């Protein structure tokens, strides 16, 4: 991790102004004009399952696991019929697979019991499903239903604090700041712009500032603008 001269981890000099925040997001938009989820899915249900499986796992690893899973169980009823053991066989290459297999079957049964097998367009109903928290609900509402939600994963949490875009001690604090500070017309796609930026440029161990399109408004004190 880059360090400041005092020995503390390098972070943001200060919180961005609203004008700087809009400029930062605009520059990311220009760099990723066609940004979208990198998870493979075919409908609202397979999106929900894929997002639930993606906790503490890469999208690439989830896509490899769900290729066969969605072939064998493309609907809630088929997933329940497949059963926890068989689901586990499909997803054992991703983290926490035993718990996730149990949750996928349980949330599929809950969809059948409570929502006629459909994914509900309602935050409280989504968060009431087994294995579905606020981040997963936000992704589903954003991608499936077009809502202007901000799902704060590890990448967005890091960017919010490192750059000064939306500093916060918790994911919810960062989420609330992002929702308040990003212009409303940009909020929905900003979820994807920020994730891709964190995944491929503003990386955890060594941010590749020399490839960043938004170094000017960024308040990170440890910028390295020349490639090593």
Automatic annotation (TrEMBL):
Cofactor note: Binds 1 [4Fe-4S] cluster.
EC number(s) per entry: 4.2.99.18
A molecular function GO annotation: DNA N-glycosylase activity
Keywords per UniProt: 4Fe-4S, DNA damage, DNA repair, DNA-binding, Endonuclease, Glycosidase, Hydrolase, Iron, Iron-sulfur, Lyase, Metal-binding, Nuclease
Ranges in coiled-coil conformation: none
Catalytic activity: 2'-deoxyribonucleotide-(2'-deoxyribose 5'-phosphate)-2'-deoxyribonucleotide-DNA = a 3'-end 2'-deoxyribonucleotide-(2,3-dehydro-2,3-deoxyribose 5'-phosphate)-DNA + a 5'-end 5'-phospho-2'-deoxyribonucleoside-DNA + H(+)
Domain of life: Bacteria
Domain HhH-GPD: 53-200
GO BP field: base-excision repair, AP site formation
Cofactor: [4Fe-4S] cluster
Binding positions for [4Fe-4S] cluster per the UniProt entry: 202, 209, 212, 218
Keyword 4Fe-4S: yes
The protein's enzyme class: lyase
Role of this protein: DNA repair enzyme that has both DNA N-glycosylase activity and AP-lyase activity. The DNA N-glycosylase activity releases various damaged pyrimidines from DNA by cleaving the N-glycosidic bond, leaving an AP (apurinic/apyrimidinic) site. The AP-lyase activity cleaves the phosphodiester bond 3' to the AP site by a beta-elimination, leaving a 3'-terminal unsaturated sugar and a product with a terminal 5'-phosphate.
Family: Belongs to the Nth/MutY family.
Name of this chain's protein: Endonuclease III
Organism from which the protein derives: Gluconacetobacter sacchari
């Amino acid at each position: 991790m880059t360090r400041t001269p005092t020995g503390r981890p390098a972070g943001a000099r200060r919180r961005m102004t609203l004008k700087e925040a809009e400029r930062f997001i605009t520059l990311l938009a220009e760099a990723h004009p066609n940004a979208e989820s990198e998870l493979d899915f075919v409908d609202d249900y397979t999106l929900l399952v894929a997002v639930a499986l993606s906790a503490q796992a890469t999208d690439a690893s989830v896509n490899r696991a769900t290729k066969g899973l969605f072939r064998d169980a493309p609907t809630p009823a088929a997933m329940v019929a497949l059963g926890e053991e068989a689901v586990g066989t499909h997803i054992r290459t991703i983290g926490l697979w035993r718990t996730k297999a149990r949750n996928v079957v349980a949330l599929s049964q809950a969809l059948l019991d409570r929502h006629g097998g459909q994914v509900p367009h309602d935050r409280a109903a989504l968060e009431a499903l087994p294995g579905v928290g606020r981040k997963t609900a936000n992704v589903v509402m954003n991608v499936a239903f077009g809502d202007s939600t901000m799902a704060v994963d590890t990448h967005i949490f890091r960017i919010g604090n490192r750059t000064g875009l939306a500093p916060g001690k918790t994911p919810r604090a960062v989420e609330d700041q992002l929702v308040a500070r990003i212009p409303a017309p940009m909020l929905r796609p900003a979820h994807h712009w920020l994730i891709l930026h964190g995944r491929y440029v503003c990386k955890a161990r060594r941010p590749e500032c020399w490839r960043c399109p938004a170094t000017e408004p960024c308040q990170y004190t440890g910028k390295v603008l020349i490639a090593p």
